[in-house]
Amino acid sequence: MPKGKMKMDLSQAEEYFQKYYDKLIWETILARARLKLNEHLDNYRSSYLRELNQAPHFFKLTMVAHYDDALLTLSRILDRHEDSLSIWKFFNFVEQNRRIFSNQAFRQRMKENPNYESLIESHTPITRKEIDEDRQKLGSLEGTISRIRDLRDKVLAHTDRTFYLSGKITTKKYTFERKKLYEVIDTLVEILNGYSGAYNASRYSERFLGEDDIQHVMDSIRFHIQERKKQLEALRRQARDKG
Length: 243
What we know:
The chain is built from 11 helices and no strands. It is mostly helical. The protein folds into 2 domains: 10-208; 212-243.
């Protein structure tokens, strides 16, 4: 899309909305999945310590990688760069192309849906007021968002020499409580699903299918340890019996 050109004909606007939405919601859900995997591994240090110690360096690096990737993904979604496909550009786009959420456009889009009547009855077009309120929702989280941006710019995507040598990377200012990151993610999911609901009555679940797969890994390692222990005990019994 050319710079500055956000308003377009209906079919093109619908095409761009779907591309914007699909990219942003998928990135948001992946950010949550990565943060959740980091959280699981952190929590497992109390209940699966023996299992984690089977490959301590691998699990430590995996834990860090999921956390860093979650922050990098969020920083892309929340980027302020003029060329970025970000939530802010998404707001500008839907503001200038609100007719794709009109009752008429929605009726045309839903005409083959078996729940057509109930969907039409409950549909509410997007207004400028709602878009402004969504901007404000994210604006209220600017403290966390600006720290994500700083960490991306100074540590994760670029090693800022002055910042690094100052030692600020170790200060509390550049650490995050997971609940703060989840708050940003949950807000993004809520906002994006509001627009997809008005567009075609669809919503994404914020939960990533398979985000608890790590539990199967831990249980498999535990089973392997137990089976190996049984085998060793059987070998010792055999040795004793022969002796």
